[in-house]
Amino acid sequence: MSQITTHVLDTALGKPAQGITIKLSKHNTDGSWTKLASGITNEDGRIGDLLGKEETLQPGTYQMFFETGPYFKANNQQNFYPFVPVVFEIKDTSHYHVPLLLNPFGYSTYRGS
After folding, report:
1. Could you tell me the CATH number of the domain that includes residue 104?
2. What is the spatial distance between Cα 33 and Cα 73, in angstroms, rounded to a whole number?
3. If DSSP states are collapsed to H, E and C, what string results for 39-86?
4. How does pLDDT run across 4-37, given as a tens digit for each residue?
5. How many domains does the chain have?
6. What domain range includes position 43?
7. How many CB atoms lie under 10 A from the CB of residue 24?
8. Do the strands 21-27 and 60-67 form a parallel or antiparallel pair, or are they unpaired?
């Protein structure tokens, strides 16, 4: 399993959010971001292989960038957030699950298991 996993649930529809592009980036000391990986959520709203099984991220600050606008457009839903950047800090090499609970006018996230 990838060290970083995610899933997106559409709380307005009560189902997984399929087809959302997610980009994983690392924050650099100069304030810029370096893209490390990307993927698209599957029918279960998950990306289980964002990183390779043998790839380990070092402690630091990372961002998952959820491109939500195209998802809402494809579902004929008006929305307020065209994208959702979730910035988090990795302290060690353990598994990190970063889910997103999404609806057209709000979202929340947490560190999952």
Report:
1. 2.60.40.180
2. 27
3. EECCCCCEECCCCCCCCCCCCEEEEEEEEHHHHHHHCCCCCCCCCEEE
4. 999 999 999 999 999 999 999 999 999 999 999 9
5. 1
6. 4-109
7. 23
8. antiparallel
